[in-house]
Amino acid sequence: MTANLTGFEPVFCTIVPPHVLDTLAQSQDPTLAAPARRTLERDSIERTHRRLTTVIGAPGVALPKGAAADKPHRTIYDAKQRTQLPGRKVRGEGDEPGKDATVNRAYAGLGATFELFQKAYERNSIDGNGLPLDATVHYGEDYGNAFWNGEQMVFGDGDGEIFLDFTIPVDVIGHELTHGVVQYTANLTYFGQPGALNESMADVFGSIIKQYTLGQSAHEADWLIGAGLLAPRVSGKALRSMKEPGTAYDDDVLGKDPQPADMDHYVRTGRDNGGVHINSGIPNRAFYLVADALGGHSWERAGQIWYAVLTGGELAQDASFEDFAKLTVAAARQKYGDGEELKAVTDAWATVKVPVPKAAANG
């Protein structure tokens, strides 16, 4: 089955997994439980809105008159702790930075994402056709999440107890916008293994965007998703670790990071859309291993292989980890021949125990 390029899969993607918010909502401490419950309720409403948008169709978005087709067109809105989108416009493309650091970080993060996809992959914005990039900040009361709703980015300020401002980590911005890229390309079904691949793609390119922004090599990068997002009271360093899945946090309130590092520890669950934020640790680690083995910048050889599979038209909406692994092997061979790139890819999948058919590995 080939990819559906319509971009109408009813996906509502958040950076904080539901299982984390569920745990917080059950806390005996009302300062932790109340914001988590409000966030879960808000996410449920937005998820329903996303489905309705899918049914009736999202409004068309065109570049403003006179806007350059190969440049970002960013608009930042302020919800002022309310939940009506998009809110009041506070910064447009080319406007000077204001006093609100959250607005400025959102603007910069949208720009960094646009630049990475354009310069590294010759992709013109999220949809490939110059889609304007809109974002709303200061969303909701103590809202503990960030999401892509199929049309725009939305950032909460966090509760200050568990989560800080969601514009702080640039990889969170890149992660959520990459869900938009997935929406307009492979459109991976948001459940089970294809849903975990959807999440992993967002983590992969979110991390690449962070590394690109910081000018880091694969060896220099921390490979953490959401570093700087957790408040000081939390025993943890990030939401996820691509290098060492399952080690991002171990906290008396949040619990322990449940991500597996290989298929021997794959988590079978009906929660979180079949564990999309949990089992994404497996393909995440595979990408890290490829990038680390090849060295240099992760957006180059390793990123080129992953991007080729995402956008190549052969990745099915219901692809399994094995399907994806097979396509990365084929892409590595097609782009780079039977050299170190191919070995890095086949070795990575072997390490995370995702089988690659011998015919694919051997050509």
Strand content: 5-15%
pLDDT < 50 runs, ≥5 residues? 1-9, 53-59
- Structural class assignment: alpha+beta
Radius of gyration, CA atoms, in whole angstroms: 19 Å
Question: What would the average pLDDT be, to the nearest integer?
Answer: 92
Largest sheet: 6 strands, mixed
Q: How many beta-strand elements? A: 10
Please report the number of helical segments: 11
What is the helical fraction, as a range of percent? 40-55%
- SSE pattern: EHHEEHEEEHHEEEEHHHHHH
User: How far apart lie the N and C ends?
Assistant: 22 Å
Shape: globular
User: Can you list the strand order of the major beta sheet?
Assistant: 1-5-6-4-2-3
Task: Kindly describe this structure.
The chain has 363 residues and is α+β, with helices and mostly antiparallel strands. It is 43% helix and 9% strand. The chain has eleven helices and ten strands. Helix 8 (301-311) crosses helix 9 (321-336). The protein is globular.
Describe the SSE topology.
Blueprint: E1 13-14, H1 18-25, H2 30-56, E2 74-78, E3 88-92, H3 101-121, E4 133-137, E5 146-148, E6 153-155, H4 170-184, H5 192-214, E7 224-225, E8 240-241, E9 250-251, E10 255-256, H6 272-275, H7 281-294, H8 301-311, H9 321-336, H10 340-351, H11 358-362
Parallel strand pairs: 2-4, 4-6
Antiparallel strand pairs: 1-5, 2-3, 5-6, 7-8, 9-10
Helix pairs in contact: 1-2, 3-4, 4-5, 5-7, 7-8, 7-10, 8-9, 9-10
